[in-house]
Amino acid sequence: MSTLEIRGLHVSVETESGPKEILRGVDLTVRSGETHAVMGPNGSGKSTLAYSLAGHPKYTVTSGEVLLDGEDVLAMTVDERARAGLFLAMQYPVEVPGVSVSNFLRTAKTAVDGEAPKLRTWVKDVKGAMDRLSIDDAFAERDLNTGFSGGEKKRHEILQLELLNPKFAVLDETDSGLDIDALRVVADGVNRFTSSGDKGVLLITHYTRILRYIKPDYVHVFVGGRVAEEGGPELADKLEEKGYVDYAGASA
Amino acid sequence: MTSDTVQHGLTEHSHGAGAEAKGHGGSAFNTVASFDVDAHPVPRGRDEAWRFTPMARLRDLHVDTPLDGNDYEVGVDADPRVVVETIEVTDARSAAVRGSSGYVPVDRPSARAWAEADTTLAITIPAEVQTERPTIVRLRGLGAEKAAAGHVVITAERFSQSVVVLEHEGSALFVDNIEVVTHDGARLTVVSLQDWADDAVHLSHHHVRVGRDAVVKHAVVSFGGDLVRTSVTLDYAAPGGDAELLGLYFADSGQHLEKRLFVDHNRPNCRSNVLYKGALQGAKAHTVWIGNVLIRPEAEGINTYELNRNLILTDGARADSVPNLEIETGEIEGAGHASATGRFDDEQLFYLMARGISADEARRLVVRGFFTELINKIGVPEIADRLSATVERELAIGEGLPAASSSAAVTAPSRTDHETTEAKN
Known about the structure:
The structure holds two protein chains of two kinds.
Chain A: E1 3-15, E2 18-31, E3 35-39, H1 46-54, E4 59-68, E5 71-72, H2 78-84, E6 86-89, E7 96-100, H3 101-113, H4 119-132, E8 143-144, H5 150-164, E9 168-172, H6 180-194, E10 200-205, E11 218-223, E12 226-231, H7 233-242
Parallel strand pairs in A: 3-10, 3-11, 6-9, 9-10
Antiparallel strand pairs in A: 1-2, 1-4, 4-5, 7-8, 11-12
Helix pairs in contact in A: 5-6
Chain B: E1 72-77, E2 83-88, H1 94-97, H2 108-116, E3 119-125, E4 135-156, E5 161-182, E6 187-196, E7 201-210, E8 215-222, E9 227-236, E10 242-251, E11 256-265, E12 271-280, E13 286-295, E14 303-312, E15 318-327, E16 334-342, H3 346-353, H4 359-378, H5 381-398, H6 408-411
């Protein structure tokens, strides 16, 4: 049983006209076994929350705290957070030419586990996970994210999620840009990840579409850098119907 | 790269499009070509072709240091069908071999080496011979006290297919000319691997003559040495030639590695593709890349592209990168160049670290990846492992050094954090 606690989180980015506050006091707790959907209009700070949790250098935490089982996440480097069990599936995975997918996956697995995976089972694990995500075998020898289509990048993120097997996954608009088939494949991957019952998921999305395939336990509506409303899955139905219009005033 | 040398938006009507912008007359075709040493003035630091070179570290090789030393040994490992001969200048055959690429020395060190090298190492791949393994010439310098001159002529006869690797190691003061001649339809890969000891000074001129429909791959790989300056000139004997010019360099603290290229598109329907990649680490590591391409009026239907990328790993290193393109006919398939110099890409490091990979390991992955593309393009499996291992060794040297700060790319004197790509005609 693990807990990811976000308390009073304020985050700024540097702009030409000085620091600009994006997150204005976020409180959110995710326990293992729970799936939380974070929904909100563009510019509401959803992705900032995701990148801040992962420790992207562009974002400065000005106050608040993030605790993983009581440990101070904000004091950790980016790689330490990943090794502590946090995973961020990125909206825009970065191309790294000359580094093959297979080499990257093995290096990451070794780093996260603290020891190299056993070769025989590892090869089988990778192949199995790739098959389940309908990823072609040749993919393993391609350069990391280089020249991948949008759908390939997202499936590759979920491949890493399955193989690295973190405690908590933050999925940053993993559904955006996917056609319905790819969306199903990705959602199935996330559901496999949570099926063990001891995983926490923070699913960040603009649309309710993915929630037909991944059932959230809680829904948080994000507006103007903080949580404007919280509820159960029924809140997503309301958003499906009415969109974010009701929250327009809150984004000031 | 200085911004005045970058050509933007060349189009068909941009005849001779100011590639000599602001009197930047550095192209090799403006240079005196002569076998007579005295026809070449002693280079000075203010000369365009020498302005990046630390003249004080040349040990007067460009002036009058005798090149009569022989403190080096040469070993050759060749396929038995490849003919390897050492021809004395006094030998009647010498005159026919030396100069067979059409090269005439374009600067004083090259002319001096031509005059003073008393033998020519001639490597000939006979017509239609296809070798399975590369011909490897190992030159091992035994000391940097006395200077020496060398001359190599590699001839790929018609329809032959082969790889020649010239390895350099040890300590030396060395000035040489390498001629590469390819006849009709030959396929030849030549790799010059410069893995010198720290005190070596090497001035080298390569001239490549591309035959009709010949396919030439030429690679210069520089790791060691105090000062290594390699000039590569290339022209075509007939239409249909295809040249790929590759370069890999890794400069450490205090090293000066300079690569100068001049591709002379003097025949129609030929191609050239240039890719040079370098990494730099440590105080006063300095690399220079000059890529000159001339498309003469008769070179219709050609296609050329050149790309130089430099990765600055620590503060205090400097990469200069100057592409020059002179187009004298608009009737071409394409011409372009790009140059980019920068530090690590923060987003790449973040992505890797977000998967638990430490900062050091992430940097190693990125640099390995940066060079892997090039090592694969060189495509000689017999040296690929060695090149990868040497890159690893270089990375280990830099491990203790602090990574380049975010201002590094901006303050790097090369000021090249931009890229130019020419429109295709």
